[in-house]
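User: My collaborator and I are trying to settle a disagreement about how two of our proteins should look. Neither of us wants to argue from intuition anymore, so we agreed to look at predicted structures for both before our next call. Could you fold the first one, then the second, and keep them clearly separated?

Assistant: That sounds like a sensible way to settle it. I'll keep them separate. The first protein:
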Amino acid sequence: MEEQKKVSRLHIAIMAITAGVCVANIYYNQPILKDIALSFNVSESKAGLIPVLTQIGYGLGLFFITPLGDKIPRKKLIFFIAVLLCMTFTNTIYGLYLMSLLLGMVSISAQVLLPMAAAIDKENRGKNVSLVFTGLLVGILAARVVSGYIAHWLGWRYVFGISAGMVLIVSLLTWFVLPTIAVEFKGNYGQLLRSTFAQVKRFPLLRRTALIGAFIFGAFCSFWTTLTFFLSGPPFNYHTDTIGLFGVLAIGGALLAPVFGKLADKGNSTRSQVMAISLIIAGVLLMKIMPTNIIALIFVVLFLDIGVQATQITNIATIYTLDETAHSRINTVYMTIYFLGGALGTYVGVKCWHIGGWQMVAWQLLLWVLIAIAFAFKKKEQAN
């Protein structure tokens, strides 16, 4: 086996950039759903299935592929250029559905890199994981801005074509530059999956944290998917490039969320979770009270993104305090539940938009976050 090379800033930078480029593919479709609907002459409801299938695919990829990071060198899992190219040239809505599902499945590279960052240099584990996660956050936030502009000036297909080129570059960099990390799990694939299931029973903290993450991310995905429909219609009638600019506002989430992570490092994870979720609740209430006020909507975006990203950072800091020899499997459990929550939230959000518009969306968002904060308080009670 190839010996592990000395870890450098270049290695961590490549991992952070790769995480951002990979995870962005899950979010590119959100600001361009209306363009896709018009391109295929289908309803907004049918176009709304695209992010749902992408999230479902991501959940499946997390569960069936990510655990392999404990069995085979992780950098071998970061290849999915063919799916993006197929998505670029798909000519039917059903073909796009299939490619969206596959794209989600193979976009788990970002989640392979987080445990890799934890293992690559144990002396600087926290620092490395935080840097890679920052790259992941930037990818999530930039995806909406980039896709909106590309779709407006070149067309929505170019979004995935350009992304394919970016993925090819980072895939080659990870293959030729990153060191190979020695694997720790020696069993077969079936045993690996059974061991992943065992982590659920093994750690009650993992179960509760994953459920909190699932409900919060469900609200997050529901909001951003339906926001596209809301802003593209009356009274705003914004184009995709303008809608994409709302992603810039979310940079506030990436800048301020680490403050909550410091609370988790000091043993105040529950306090951090409650504070973060309370911000989301404030955003949803503002969304209901002043639905068509653009200034209020800007604050809604800020509150929701800061709250969601802060919750995620706190959750990751919490689960990485568990067994370090099973980071990939623990990460698999958490992120599978997390993104399945996102898929369900997206689906419910689209349905609520179709049934009752923006107000119905706001009501279901409030339900999601209230359930999440109930789990956070339950965790606090059990800790006491």
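The second protein, kept apart from the first:
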Amino acid sequence: MRAAGGVIVGDDGKVLVAHRPRYDDWSLPKGKADPDESDEDCAVREVEEETGWQCRLVRELPSVRYHDRYGRPKIVRYWEMAIEGGEFRANDEVDEVAWLDVAEARRRLSYDRDASVLDALGELGKTAT
């Protein structure tokens, strides 16, 4: 299964983590790719659907591979993203977001595999955009 998502980095270097009420977990925004959709387009679409923010891709981050709750292999490609517009809107998939420094975001995330993506941002969690 292919999926993609993003790490939104604010102007202050803080990153966004999302609470998913369905699983009662904290994760990075992501979702499944449509059959004819590129991973890049999927990442932009899913981040907007889950958070309400329109973002642009800044750079690719490490991918994550794991088995979903049904035992199916899954790969999630991630990108660092910068906000270009929009605003957060709570929805069925994400009911709350938090802007945290990278270290705090790593602690808040429910899955170590998501935390490993943050490591690629570097100590400050901010790159030239």
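Some points you might bring to the call about the second protein. Residues 2-119 form a domain with the Nucleoside Triphosphate Pyrophosphohydrolase fold (CATH 3.90.79.10). The beta strands are 2-8, 15-20, 25-27, 30-32, 53-67, 73-86, 96-100.
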